[in-house]
Amino acid sequence: MQAAVELDTAPRRIAPAPRSGVHVVQAGDTVWRIARQYGVSAAQLTRWNGLERPDRIFPGERLRVAATS
Q1: DSSP code string of 38-69
Q2: So what's the pLDDT on residue 37?
Q3: Is 35 helix (H, G, I), strand (E, B) or coil?
Q4: Which terminus of the chain has a smaller tally of CB atoms within 10 A, N or C?
Q5: Exposure string (b/e) for 1-22, b if CB count within 10 Å is 16 or more?
């Protein structure tokens, strides 16, 4: 049995991320996606937050997403 799937092919516009310097992790977030959202590298995000296991972030965690001045 095949289910019909309708795909939305319209281009999606992503609003720029707020530049507050802190991101609260949501379910489904990854370090790579968060880094991309804020225009930084995953390596920078990992280093700034002292993440030993960047594959282990959890909803509710607060991550620094900008370098301190």
Answers
A1: HT--HHHHHHHTT-S-TT---TT-EEE-S---
A2: 93
A3: helix
A4: N
A5: eeeeeeeeeeeeeeeeeeeeee
CB atoms within 10 A of CB 57: 19
Q: What integer pLDDT is reported at residue 5 of this predicted model?
A: 55
Cα separation values, 15 from 8, 19, 44, 46, Å: 18, 12, 22, 23
List, for residues 1-59, the tens digit of each pLDDT value.
555 555 556 555 544 545 568 999 999 999 999 999 999 999 999 999 999 999 999 99
Cβ atoms of 54 and 31 closer than 8 Å: yes
